[in-house]
Amino acid sequence: MGARDSGDRRDTDMTPIEDYIRQRLQRKRLLLMTHAIVGYPSFEANMTMLEAMQHADVDLVELQLPFSEPIADGPVFVQANQYALEAGVAWDNYFAFMQRATMVFDFKILMMGYYNSILQMGHERFCACLAEHGGDGFIVADLPPEEADDLHQYAAAYQQAPIVMMTPVNSESRLRRIADKASGFVYCVARRGVTGRHTQVDEGLEAFIARCRSATSLPLALGFGLRTHQDLQQVKGLVDIGIIGTALLTAWEQGGVKRYGTLLQELTSAVT
Amino acid sequence: MYAELFQYPVGREGYYGQFGGSFIPEILHETIRELTTAFDDAQADPAFWDAYIALMSSYSCRPTPLTHLENLSKDLGGAQIYVKREDLNHTGAHKVNNVMGQGLLVQRMGKQRVIAETGAGQHGVATATMAARMGFECTIYMGSVDVERQRPNVFWMEQLGARVVSVDDGTKTLKDAINATLRDWADSMHTTHYVMGTVCGPHPFPQMVTYFQSLIGREARSQMLEQTGKLPKRVYACVGGGSNASGIFAGFLDDAEVELVGVEAGGLGLDSGQHAARLARNVGSTGVAQGYKTRFLQNAEGQMRPTHSVSAGLDYVGVGPVLAYLHDIGRIRVEAATDAEVLASLQHVMRREGIIPALESAHAFVTALKEAPNLSPQDSILINQSGRGDKDIFTIAEALGDEPWRAFLRQKVGEWEPETAATDGILT
């Protein structure tokens, strides 16, 4: 697994998820990735959320494995993590839920979480477990590229895409370094801060995405602070995937499945 | 050994054996680089250390004295007991050393705002003090359980001009305050410096905080030589995150004959599950959280476990990666002291020597006083009194069940009653 030139990737380098994304992009200009914290507010509620996602033709779903120290998350997700842990969410019921979801739904599923869960499980066991339960990759909020080599080797062996993050404050050389570790797609963080606060789509954001494009030829996903179908309208054409997280969970908390489904339908109308 | 600790092999920057590193969201990467560069530059500039020493001597009673506990040494009939008096610092604890050093660094970096976590509140008060003196805006994050335990410190932070944010996430203690501060920093890092209070968190914090706190050990070593003509047999320090221990141990790491003993919070006993010991009896296991790798108190799936200690300052799930490494290679020994032992020891030391250690520091006294009789009166031992105990008056008085104190509190509360009584009066 040496560093490879992102501009000269062979087709055999393509992970199943990148292949899937490129196919979907042939019929949609912007794909949609959504998010759920497994076990919050309950496994049954999670299933209802996922059914609404399927109904709205969502393309990718992050299933967050709760962690007691979620430093990259904002208040809404912090409380949800805590609640899920107190309710007894653990590896076995998390992966059982993932398997159930991958068997029922069409969208691709990625694990999202923090590095300690993976470290405790073991790099190989984690990747094998993901593959066994139907996952297609993972997003780790606190694993820098310097620490990623061993985990990424196992990811490749089990056809899991390790999704890395690029941010607006990264230098060009840092973006290239991150690109070296990337496969599947790249998660572009729209702004500073944690999840949940609104982001303005502006020229600064366009310049950032241009810098990401020059660092990698992989599809780009944009997250952190996208909330509405207007936000998605604005990033259509700019990136390949829009990520909606906190806005959906807030909709659920404020208006249950009805409001959740309505927001999803609005979001979908923006991307098709 | 001290210098070698911080000379990293290529590709292992910020690592001490398997511990340390920098596990942070990518958004903080460039900020951490900027801080590392600024710190390396400052360290290479002899004028920086001189400015630090000058500031600490004019602002915080440095060098702090070394006190011979003559009565206790005689009572126990063993080693001569010496105490490094970090409690005599401005703001009452060793925390101010690190804070003023980082303040000078913030001036070099040209930032205008500082944020910090605090457990017992000592680090928060010290940071608020530094911010007031140096003219920085200041926000302090503190777990809501600690806010309740340490209201006097909250009062002082606010009087010093800091905004205190009570953190209601997780266990509502130090670790959750750290998470909240990291989240603030991920948003504000272009104007703001995170004044990490202990030798934890991502590189360069463990190295940087050890560097500033090493002042304790450097002073103590030369004071011991001056006052006793030789080095102590053993050096004792309490270990929460580990900054006071790292500071005093730093002075003796190169003296292989000096045994270094850390004392963790044994709470209700290591077998009770209600404690905050990570290294003692190898209770903690290797994990990654809050930006670094160390031995954490965690379950088999890597979720942090609740901790307990009578002292807020030791009530923490992780421990400095340098200390975890030194423990792994056998350079330091780590014990635990229970809440009950701590209170007994505190009373004993107050009565016989007239000094009032903080509850945190009293942990070090427990183990030192237990072991002193096994040594010869020709030998000496050194205890780091990291802070003063009068800040703990509410906790200690309650734990000791002091009836006159309770009566006093009832009377003070009573002085506020008339207003309530007046409104209630209509109904009664």
What pair of chains forms the biggest interface? A-B, 41 and 34 residues
CATH top level assignment of chain A:
Alpha Beta
Helix and strand sequence of chain A = HEHEHHEHHEHEHEHEHEH
Q: What coarse outline of chain B follows from CA principal-axis ratios?
A: globular
Return the CATH architecture of the largest domain in chain B.
3-Layer(aba) Sandwich
The CATH superfamily of chain A is identified as Aldolase class I
User: Would you state the CATH class of the largest domain in chain B?
Assistant: Alpha Beta
Beta-strand proportion of chain A: 5-15%
C-alpha-based Rg of chain B, rounded: 21 Å
The count of domains of chain B is: 2
**How helical, in percent, are the residues of chain B?**
40-55%
Strand order of the largest sheet of chain A: 1-2-3-4-5-6-7-8
Ends apart, CA distance between termini of chain B: 73 Å
Structural class assignment of chain B: alpha/beta
Unreliable stretches of chain B (pLDDT < 50, length at least 5) are 424-428
Summarize the main sheet of chain A. Answer: 8 strands, parallel, barrel
Blueprint (SSEs and pairs):
The complex is a heterodimer of chains A (272) and B (428).
Chain A: H1 16-25, E1 31-37, H2 43-55, E2 60-64, H3 75-86, H4 91-104, E3 108-113, H5 115-121, H6 123-132, E4 137-140, H7 149-157, E5 161-166, H8 172-180, E6 186-189, H9 203-215, E7 220-223, H10 229-235, E8 241-244, H11 246-271
Parallel strand pairs in A: 1-2, 1-8, 2-3, 3-4, 4-5, 5-6, 6-7, 7-8
Chain B: H1 2-5, E1 15-16, E2 19-20, H2 29-44, H3 46-59, E3 66-68, H4 70-76, E4 80-85, H5 95-109, E5 113-118, H6 122-134, E6 137-143, H7 144-149, H8 151-159, E7 163-167, H9 174-188, E8 192-194, H10 205-228, E9 234-238, H11 243-250, E10 259-267, E11 285-289, E12 292-296, H12 321-328, E13 332-338, H13 339-353, H14 359-371, E14 380-385, H15 393-399, H16 403-424
Parallel strand pairs in B: 4-14, 5-6, 5-8, 6-7, 9-10, 9-14, 10-13
Antiparallel strand pairs in B: 1-2, 3-4, 11-12
Helix pairs in contact in B: 3-5, 5-6, 5-10, 6-8, 10-11, 13-14
